[in-house]
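Example S7 (structure tokens).
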């Protein structure tokens, strides 16, 4: 930082805010720290009594906040997002497509632990839409050692801290279990809910079957949809531990890998998530509990976006839903802008 005559400050960077006070009219910042002085700024600076200014002096090994902010952006963003204009060492990351946000949490913590810089983001593993703000980054001081930014690049690693997995178009088979539905004793109110949720994504419904409670028939219907090219199969109902609820066993009989039968989420504790390998294709097979039919938000809302983005879900991730897995069933639902599943 050095002091120079205001008339000589063109092209230099201010090290502090310049405040303008007009009695009974205003008291506000005329120029913020970090502002690059222009020729047309000189009269305004002189009018507030600033005949000398403190400006940033370029030093070897020292970066201006905006230069350092570019580095934070570079280690943060992937190809599916862009940065805002730089302002006072700040850059925001904006989504360029719909998809699921993924965060390399270890890298995020490592960078934020260095001090004098920060990255704040929305929750990962949740859907984002084109134009959504993903994260905000900032350099705290006006200047920062280049060595510190070199360290940030090192701890962040070679991959971006944030990435977006775009949604994929999928063909879906729906299997509605229950003899009461098969025999027409009750109206099928489950499938319309599934179709409504699937309509939020690029899905083609291959068809729907009504196998009743026959375990072997449920298995056969699942495999039939897979033979027809299904990218996902959803079984609705028959997910409790009652002896006549045979969906979990039927899914297991396909040879699918069962990730979990049960989830620490309410509503949705009786979820079954599995993956079936058909040559080089991995096909999710879901067993959905009855709550999906009547509750506004359930475990299905947490996992469906990830499935649509081909983001494979493991058992540990399902277990982690326990914290935040309780839907409060608010009078006005604001999901996903709430704590459910986070």
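Recovered sequence:
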């Amino acid at each position: 930082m050095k002091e120079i005559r205001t008339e000589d400050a063109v092209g230099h960077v201010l090290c502090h805010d310049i405040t303008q006070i007009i009695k009974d009219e205003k008291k506000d910042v005329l120029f913020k720290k970090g502002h690059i002085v222009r020729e047309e700024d000189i009269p305004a600076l002189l009018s507030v009594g600033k005949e000398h200014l403190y400006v940033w002096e370029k030093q070897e090994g020292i970066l201006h906040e905006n230069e350092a902010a570019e580095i934070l952006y570079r280690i943060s963003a992937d190809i599916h997002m862009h940065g805002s204009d730089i302002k006072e060492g700040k850059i925001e990351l904006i989504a360029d497509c719909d998809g699921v946000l993924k965060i390399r949490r270890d890298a995020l913590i490592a960078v934020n632990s260095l001090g004098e810089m920060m990255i704040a983001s929305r929750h990962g593993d949740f859907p984002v839409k084109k134009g959504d703000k993903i994260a905000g980054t900032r350099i705290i001081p006006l200047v920062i050692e280049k060595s510190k930014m070199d360290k940030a690049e090192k701890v962040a690693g070679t991959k971006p801290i944030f990435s977006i997995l775009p949604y994929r178009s999928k063909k879906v088979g729906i299997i509605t279990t229950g003899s009461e539905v098969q025999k027409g004793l009750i109206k099928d109110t489950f499938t319309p809910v599934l179709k409504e949720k699937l309509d939020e994504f690029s899905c083609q419904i291959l068809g729907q079957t009504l196998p009743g409670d026959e375990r072997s028939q449920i298995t056969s219907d699942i495999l039939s949809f897979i033979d027809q090219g299904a990218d996902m199969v959803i079984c609705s109902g028959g997910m409790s531990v009652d002896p006549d609820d045979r969906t979990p066993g039927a899914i297991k009989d396909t040879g699918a890998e069962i990730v979990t039968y049960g989830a620490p989420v309410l509503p949705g504790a009786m979820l079954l998530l599995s993956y079936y390998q058909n040559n080089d294709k991995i096909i999710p097979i879901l067993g959905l509990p009855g709550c999906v039919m009547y509750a506004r938000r359930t475990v299905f809302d947490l996992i469906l976006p990830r499935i649509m983005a081909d983001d494979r879900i493991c058992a540990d991730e399902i277990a982690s839903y326990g914290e935040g897995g309780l839907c409060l069933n608010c009078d006005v639902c604001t999901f996903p802008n709430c704590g459910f599943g986070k």
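Notes on this example. Residues 62-166 form a domain with the Aldehyde Oxidoreductase; domain 3 fold (CATH 3.90.1170.30).
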